[in-house]
Design a protein that fits this description.
Layout lengths: L3 H5 L1 H21 L5 H12 L17 H14 L2 H27 L2 H13 L1 H7 L5 H17 L5 H10 L10 H18 L3 H30 L2 H6 L9 H16 L6 H17 L3 H19 L15 H18 L3 H24 L1 H5 L4 H10 L6 E4 L4 H7 L2 H5 L1 E3 L7 H10 L6 E6 L3 H11 L3 E9 L2 E8 L13
Parallel strand pairs: 1-2, 1-3
Antiparallel strand pairs: 3-5, 4-5
Length: 496
């Protein structure tokens, strides 16, 4: 995979980047309403001041302060809910894709770069987080920036090293997970400082360590310790913390991380094998800083999980691993190409690379509905507010409440009754009806996981009421419930 044909594939890399950014921009401009995780974080940004964003967030949300500040500034300046909140993730995701393409072209063959960049451009997770109001796209961008610094650390001038050492640790205020990647960069800087005794290398290392200590301690004191002490969040994160047998847990996390990072979970063990091969190939070459950074990043994340500070789980919480995984994947394809010297072996490697691209496309196609239509609470509430019976009481489920707070007008909020339990049942609806003063009819607004309970709940109330109207779009819905005479309703269960 070298020579004239190899150089000719540089154009597909840049074409893929352009198409990937265009895809992200199209989804962004589509302006779908916020889905549940976005809405839960959006409620905090929309209703809090800058100072209050440093406090523990509502709805079991955790996000870096500077990310929240930027989002708050965009929302206050622009006002359009979806566009303003999603703009910063869009910019971060697009820049991360451009920088990853340049790094892959520098460190791997053009064919391998095409495969890795295509996965980055069209992987479902990559596209989703670049077009969602969550901090994961900024996690990835920060990881790419630190990875670039590690790759070029030895060649940078003394002034550049000092500047990077002083400024890069500030990324922890935009991305919590960047502290793990910064630990890897510190290990790389230490290795170069031990190899050579020149002052600039050691001086930059000292500046880097001091800056990391200041940034990490400040972010922990400002926000992280509140999440660590939050019992509900710890239960939510429980799967990401170590549990016996620990060797099995570590292996499962490696498979989970690398499969999720490249959006190929169905073949995660194969991806992990190729990435390990790629890491070994990089370690034998002059690219060993990448391997050192990856190793220290992983074990520092394991240490944080062991101390129950931050979980180590796949998918969205480990998207900061994507740049490292894609680099290892490209290197693994190159290593396989060199080892399998026959034409059949070369064809096999090409088929494998193309197969991974097809797998990424299939994942994107399968999840297209998630990218275009998610909750769509805005349209549902608009129909409720401007249709008949808009003065009726509204029972709002726990899952629907964040989006309801963001999209409902003052009139709907005034008529809202907030359900308390996560799982819907007929008793909750009976309680809501009583709380509303036993009206002739009331709305039930649901979203997301409510649909897992909706069928049995509606079946349970059918003998006592009827559904007069239904409004549904995506995973959001509103049902106009008209109760029959009170004696026919079930009596509330006694609490034991």
């Amino acid at each position: 995979m070298t020579g004239r044909a190899d150089r000719a594939t540089s154009w597909p890399v840049f074409a893929i980047v352009v198409v990937g950014i265009a895809l992200r921009l199209a989804i962004y401009l589509h302006g779908k309403s916020l889905w549940i995780d976005e809405a839960m974080l959006g409620v905090n940004v929309a209703e809090r001041s800058y100072g209050q964003l440093l406090e523990r967030l509502d709805c079991m949300q955790v996000a870096p302060p500077l990310f929240l500040f930027i989002s708050r500034f965009m929302y206050a300046s622009w006002g359009h809910l979806e566009y303003s909140l999603r703009l910063f993730p869009l910019v971060c995701g697009s820049i991360a894709l451009v920088l990853m393409a340049r790094l892959l072209l520098k460190l791997s063959s053009r064919f391998s770069a095409v495969c890795a960049v295509a996965i980055a451009a069209f992987g479902l997770s990559q596209v989703q987080w670049a077009t969602s109001f969550k901090q994961y796209a900024s996690d990835e961008l920060c990881a790419v920036l630190i990875l670039i610094a590690a790759v070029g650390w030895e060649c940078f001038s003394a002034r550049t090293r000092y500047a990077l050492a002083a400024l890069l640790p500030a990324l922890v205020w935009v991305s919590y997970t960047s502290v793990f990647v910064l630990s890897g960069l510190a290990a790389v800087a230490l290795s170069f400082a031990l190899k050579e005794r020149r002052g600039p290398k050691r001086g930059a290392l000292i500046v880097l360590l001091c800056s990391m200590a200041i940034a990490s301690s400040s972010i922990y004191a400002a926000t992280v310790h509140r999440s660590v002490r939050y019992g509900a969040m710890m239960k939510f994160w429980a799967d990401g913390f170590p549990h016996p047998p620990y060797t099995t847990w570590l292996f499962e996390k490696l498979v989970d991380i690398f499969g999720s990072a490249v959006d190929l979970e169905p073949v995660a063990p194969l991806i992990l094998g190729i990435c390990i091969w790629g890491a070994w190939s990089l370690a034998k070459s002059k690219r060993w800083p990448v391997v050192m950074l990856a190793a220290v990043t992983f074990f520092s994340a394991v240490a944080a999980a062991s101390l129950r500070i931050y979980p180590l789980v796949g998918g969205r919480l480990t998207i900061y691993w994507a740049p490292i995984a894609l680099l290892f994947l490209a290197s693994g394809l190159d290593a396989a190409y060199r080892v399998l010297k026959s034409s059949f072996g070369h064809q096999l490697v090409r088929v494998l690379g193309v197969g991974m691209i097809i797998g990424a496309f299939c994942g994107l196609a399968a999840g297209a509905s998630k990218l275009i239509v998610r909750q769509e609470m805005r349209q549902v509430l608009n129909e409720v507010e401007h249709g008949a019976y808009n003065d009726a009481s509204i029972a709002v489920s726990v899952y629907a409440s964040p989006a309801f707070l963001l999209y409902a007008g003052p009139k709907l909020k005034k008529n809202a009754i907030w359900l308390q339990n996560l799982g819907l049942d007929s008793q909750q609806l009976y309680w809501a009806w009583l709380t509303a003063g036993q009206p002739a009819r009331f709305w039930l607004v649901v979203s997301h996981a409510d649909f897992d309970f909706l069928g049995p709940t509606l079946s349970g109330i059918r003998p006592f009421s009827k559904i007069k109207k239904k409004v549904r779009l995506g995973n959001s819905a509103a049902f106009l419930i008209e109760p029959r005479p009170q004696p026919e309703w079930p009596k509330p269960r006694k609490e034991h």
